[in-house]
Amino acid sequence: MEQLLASRSVSITELKRSPSTVIEQAGSEAIAVLNHNRPAAYLLPHAAYQELLDRLQAAEIREAIAASRNDPRPAIAADTVFAELDALIDEVAAEQGHL
């Protein structure tokens, strides 16, 4: 049998029969949804799902920072980048004014 990654489980049949009850009984915990006694999916409360997304985003940011530290290209001053962005924004605004 596959390892369950939740302390609670419910069959797909139970979930279909009474989804509100299953969600209510889950409280703040994840629930393994079983199909023929095997995990088919996991049901997560909103707060737990949001926390996972936040952690994933933070990990992606950390990876991007680590990758940027290994970038051999010379650093560009933030003032230079913002000045170039301002110039591009002004250029787009001027073009839209001429349409």
From TrEMBL:
Antitoxin component of a type II toxin-antitoxin (TA) system. Belongs to the phD/YefM antitoxin family. It comes from the Bacteria. SUPFAM superfamilies: YefM-like. This is Antitoxin. InterPro entries: Antitoxin_Phd/YefM, YefM-like_sf. It comes from Pseudomonas reinekei.
